[in-house]
Design a protein that fits this description.
By secondary structure, this protein is mainly β. Helix content is about 10%, strand content about 40%. The protein has a 6-stranded mixed β-sheet with strand order 7-4-9-2-1-12. It has a 6-stranded antiparallel β-sheet with strand order 3-8-5-6-11-10. Strand 1 and strand 2 form a beta hairpin. The longest helix has 9 residues, at about 165-175. The chain starts with a helix and ends with a strand.
Length: about 200
């Protein structure tokens, strides 16, 4: 399976070493992007991040993501899932279907590394997340299908507001689990990433 194969991938098999983090992302850019393979069905890449850098809250509409921390330590962020029936479907989460925002609930907050570790996002469960490098780090990212604006799978960025009061109480009373957020579309709030030739 993909999970089993991914669990056997190491940084050295990809020609990467912990000391390469700076050259993989460049001196002035906190996030580097190495495109290993891009096709209609699948994209494989590596992200290299400097300590403290962040890939902001974003989605993977209708996509499965299989990842592996190769070295370093990352907070894979608040994996959120749709909490409203209108936004929860097999195609994943998209502001085009959800209007100007929707409810989302915390699925999991995962700190991964420093030992290699796998992670996975599904079209609904954990689909919204951010990544913060707790130390210089690199991770392998496999998306299927890949982002494609023409096919209705753009990468969308979001702001999330933790809710309390009546909304949170109603969520809990209905059997909802995890903290409740109001998620709204946002422009890319992060720093530029640098594409590196592999």
């Amino acid at each position: 399976t993909v999970r089993a194969l991914l669990g056997r991938v190491s940084a050295s098999e990809l020609g990467l070493r912990r000391g390469d983090a700076t050259s993989l992302r460049g001196q002035k850019v906190p996030v580097g992007f190495i495109d290993i393979y891009s096709g209609e069905e699948l994209e494989v890449c590596v992200f290299a991040m400097s300590k403290g850098s962040r890939i902001p809250l974003h989605d993977h509409p209708g996509m499965h993501v299989f990842g592996r921390v190769l070295f370093g330590k990352i907070d894979a962020g608040d994996g959120l899932y749709a909490a409203s029936a209108a936004a929860e479907d097999e195609e994943g989460l998209s502001p085009a279907r959800a209007g100007s925002g929707y409810w989302a609930a915390l699925h999991e907050d995962a700190v991964l590394g420093p030992q290699p570790a796998n992670f996975e996002l599904a079209p609904v469960v954990g689909n919204l997340h951010e990544v913060v490098a707790l130390e210089d780090a690199a991770f392998l990212d496999i998306t299927t299908p890949p982002y494609d604006d023409r096919a209705g799978r753009p990468c969308n960025y979001y702001d999330a507001e933790l809710l309390g009061g009546p909304a949170a109480r109603a969520w809990e009373a209905a059997g909802g689990e995890g903290a409740l957020y109001k998620v709204t579309p946002s422009d890319y709030p992060g720093m530029p990433a640098q594409r590196v030739e592999y």
